[in-house]
Amino acid sequence: GMIILGVYLIAEGDLTMGGLIAATMLSGRAIGPLVQLSLLSTRYNQAKSSMTIINQVMEMPDEQEEGKRYIHRPIVQGKIELERVTFHYPDSPVASIRDLSLTINPGEKVAIIGRIGSGKTTLERLIMGLYQPTEGHVR
User: Fold this and answer.
1) CB contact at 8 A, 85 and 137
2) 134 pLDDT band (50/70/90 cuts)?
3) What are phi and psi of 28, to 5 degrees?
4) Spatial contact of 119 and 96, defined as CB atoms under 8 Å apart
5) CB within 8 A of 109, min separation 6: which ones?
6) Listing from the earlier edge strand, what are the strands of the sheet with 95-104?
């Protein structure tokens, strides 16, 4: 709409080509942050909906059928504490985990999320004692 009006005003001699270009650039800079704000609002609503669904799933009771045998998992008491943990895989110059400190208190539910190769499984194996940290302590 703005460009069509600008072309009309140029044809009438009321606006120069430079004026139209400047007006187009300024309008783009003014509208850009508003578009980003609108996208941020959409992402926030999606995250809020996802969090609601995750909370509903986490609060669901365990499903165990009568008469079936299940593996007994004792409830772990105590906290898990990582203090300045660094871990290198053998023959790797790059640390998979670097200087990580983390405390998980009894009863807390923690989700470890991240991209492929970000160290989630390595962290799990450190916590379970399958790996020993290159530096730091796991308690």
Assistant:
1) yes
2) very high
3) -65, -40
4) yes
5) 58
6) 95-104, 80-88, 135-138
112's tokens: 């470890």
Mean of pLDDT values over 9-30: 93
Per mean pLDDT, which range of 8-22, 25-39, 58-72 is the poorest?
Answer: 58-72
Instruction: Take residue 92 and report the two structure tokens written for it.
Output: 């790797």
Mapped onto helix, strand or coil, the DSSP state of residue 93 is coil
Q: Kind and range of the H or E element at 2?
A: helix 2-12
Report how far residue 20's alpha carbon sits from residue 42's, in angstroms, rounded to the nearest whole number: 32
> Would you state the structure tokens that stand for residue 108, as one six-digit string?
């807390």
Per-residue pLDDT of 53-77, as tens digits, reads: 999 999 988 777 777 777 776 766 7
